Amino acid sequence: MSGGVPPGLSFSEWQAAGFDATACPVRNVLDRIGDKWTALTLSALAERPRRFSELHRIIPDISKRMLTQTLRGLERDGLATRHVFPTKPPSVEYRLSPLGRTVLPPLGGLVAWAAENFPEIRRARARFDAMPETGGE
Amino acid sequence: MSGGVPPGLSFSEWQAAGFDATACPVRNVLDRIGDKWTALTLSALAERPRRFSELHRIIPDISKRMLTQTLRGLERDGLATRHVFPTKPPSVEYRLSPLGRTVLPPLGGLVAWAAENFPEIRRARARFDAMPETGGE
DNA sequence: GAGACCAGGTCTTATTTAGAGACTGATATC
DNA sequence: GATATCAGTCTCTAAATAAGACCTGGTCTC
């Protein structure tokens, strides 16, 4: 056996299968959820559907432009849906699609890992940054 | 109950705990593994330790600059270690640290999700892109 | 009638990120 | 003696990403 590499993470598998970076699912997915606001937006929508202005209020510092862009990205990938209610002041609701819901468990796993190990990462960073970069002599 | 939101992903929790984006573990972690080469590098190191040139050969299209930068990032965060062997042509080996190993399962979960759902995401994209952006009349 | 709210669009900068390619210096091969 | 390997560094440029400010149009309030 190969020593505990989770299935799907085996590099040689990818290579053997003829790795194509542009079509790589992982690259594609990480490009989306790895951007500045998507993970946050996703988790804001995880609890319940929300309206545009509501999201804008609760997500700290996001600009309307970025919020629109993030939501369009989620919509384009089929992770969220957009519902327009033609009320007097227009109201638009965003909600996670069934597909969008399925990403929550794996994403949650990573979030849990991050929360759990961030202290150690910070210590590692502090150590690394304190190291002398130019060896004295 | 809140309807199946994984623990740690609850937005209201974060808000209640006084969300600070700069210190946010999730943002920090996603910034690292969400970049262009880190996930790939991580999975190349998952199987076994590798030397710099070896990584450079097997990771398609990465430049030395990016490879160095990616490895430094992993080293800085304590996810990988660097071992220099002062042989005649110098040889440097990179290997995952114990901490680095612990990220493989959650990362693997996301990779599996990506692989499994990418076809559907692509269909969603095709649908979205085929939609008339300016409603005719 | 001046302004605010809704959900954005647009336009112009910054900042960040990535890439290409030349250079290092010691050894080793041809 | 020209060239290659090793593990990088360096500079410069290009591309992607994000921020900020202002604009829309209809209704609603003051």
UniProtKB/TrEMBL annotation, chains A, B:
Checking Pfam families in the record gives: HxlR (PF01638)
Q: Name one GO molecular function term.
A: DNA binding
Q: Which organism is it from?
A: Telmatospirillum siberiense
Residue intervals of the HTH hxlR-type domain: 24-122
Q: Which UniProt keywords apply?
A: DNA-binding, Transcription, Transcription regulation
Q: What is this protein called?
A: Transcriptional regulator
TM segment ranges: none
InterPro entries, per this entry? HTH_HxlR (IPR002577), WH-like_DNA-bd_sf (IPR036388), WH_DNA-bd_sf (IPR036390)
